[in-house]
Amino acid sequence: MIKQLLKSVREFKKAALLTPFFVVLEVVMEVVIPAVMALLIDRGIDASNMGEIWKYGLILVVCAMLALIFGALAGTYAARASTGFARNLRHDMYYAVQDFSFSNIDKFSTGSIVTRLTTDVTNVQNSFQMCTRIAVRCPVMLVFALVMAFRINGRLAWVFLGVLPVLAVGLGLLMKVVGPVFERVFKTYDRMNTVVQENVRGIRVVKAYVREEYETEKFKGVSGLLYKEFSKAQKTMTGAMPLMQFCMYACMLLISWFGARLIVGGSMTTGELTSLFSYAMQILMSLMMVAMVFVMITMSKASAERIVELLREKPDLHNPEKPVTEVKSGDITFERVSFSYKGDEHKLALRDVNLDIRAGQTIGILGGTGAAKSTLVQLIPRLYDVTSGSVKVGGVDVRAYDIETLREQVAMVLQKNVLFSGTIKENLRWGDENASDEELARVCKLAQADEFIEQMPDGYDTHIEQGGTNVSGGQKQRLCIARALLKKPKILILDDSTSAVDTKTDAQIRKAFAEEIPDTTKIIIAQRVSSVQDADQIVIMDGGTIQTVGTHDSLLASNPIYQEIYNQQQKKGGEA
Fold it and tell me: Sheet harboring 362-367: ordered strands across?
């Protein structure tokens, strides 16, 4: 796990290595100061020698200044290394998510990914900074101060060593108890983020159904659970402080008692006892800081495991060793295709699908909810891989293509149309970042989007809010179709993406497709018969299988499912 995380340090290795270097120099200066102070007291103050006072006083000032400079440099490099490490870690995680297939994304909720990119990375960043500074400073200070304490008086120095086992056992027990609690805390964070995101994204629905109180109670429940778990963890960790204070005061009392007797006996000077108190404080403060590091590491351990889990998640889809980099045509062939979202052959979403589509054809797909229509078309651009059988595009198995090459030639407008914050132009140019204004206007005309765009105050420079909340559902669908057309694909898939437009506009879109992109293979998933009745072939799906394939006339004459759909829609149209 540590090795995986350290890969994200990269260009900040120098800063990460210089931090402990300056920390050690700072510690050396701080350890030297009590020794110089002892000489100042014994040779200067007690001996009433102003020359020695000036000499050791000047040395003290120099040591203090050097300690300050080294401390400032250590802090600067630690901040640079930790923030750079966090930046790279977020970068690596974000790019890892971009490479995920749909099945990988299905394993992590949106709230969980957001928590890992924010809270978890912050926890690991804090631990990284502590490890490069405090975790280096504490043991070095402990060793140096102990050496100096033994050098002054070996018998008194054993007091410190007697404290170490007590602290070690106490901190070990705390970590063992609190570790699982923090794991539960971060899982609860995931749930809370998911609740917040769902509420904010669907706030219009919440208000329309007057469900504010219900949503508030739901948030209160998960927030209360988070409070309960975090309080339990924090209460447990507070046990570290009383333990540290007990050990500190016990040491100070024992040193005071035995030190006073040694001074009276003449075997120790006042300066030596004073410096020993300083070393006692340094040793005990180091132990307290070690306790803080343990607390931070315990908190961040769960975060680190969650980050590494995401980084180690391997995309299910890979390019072959020698990928095909050209899609020759828009021919599509399904050969005995079966598919399961969980890879379980006993829980198939598609079963034994066979279908041939020639380049330039228009294919309509109809079927009830859960018939696996969307699942079928998602196999074409290889958003998922088949469980068995094969899908071929241009006569080549989609698994043999370079994934980017394949997806460049397969434009897909999904059921959930997504627009990003930015202008209409910026959204359209997702299809082709170098498209001219004339090309944008052309595809918008094909998608019947030009009329409403021109009526907007800023035209193509109109700003789209996050998620496209300032345009209607039909407008959003037409913009997404225009964006897909801008790719100039060999295959265009419309996954129920004209459901929010009126029948007249739907007909105009289909007419434009037939006239302007005759060589593009067009697959239209629809709920309305009118959207597909002019297609070259209409595929009827039911229960994950292809029930039948035919033209509008042949299906209307022979297929009960098609007849039922057609008659119901005709009846509704007549009533209207």
Answer: 410-413, 491-495, 521-525, 362-367, 537-542, 545-550
**CA gap 36, 57 in Å, rounded:** 8
Close Cβ partners of 494 (under 8 Å, ≥ 6 residues apart): 413, 481, 522, 523, 524, 525, 526
Cα separation, 83 vs 504, in Å, equals 56
Most confident of 101-115, 152-166, 480-494: 480-494
Give me Rg for the CA atoms of the chain.
Answer: 35
Q: pTM for the complete prediction?
A: 0.67
* Sign of the dihedral through C-alpha 484, 485, 489, 492: positive
Helix (H) or strand (E) holding 539: strand 537-542
User: What is each CA distance from 412 to 88, 112, 229, 483, 492, in whole angstroms?
Assistant: 32, 27, 44, 10, 6
Q: How are beta strands 521-525 and 491-495 bridged, if at all?
A: parallel
Angstrom distance (rounded) from CA 97 to CA 287: 40
Per-residue model confidence as pLDDT tens digits over 304-339:
888 999 999 888 888 888 999 999 999 999 999 999
Assigned token pair, 461: 């420079």
Per-residue model confidence as pLDDT tens digits over 298-308: 778 878 888 99
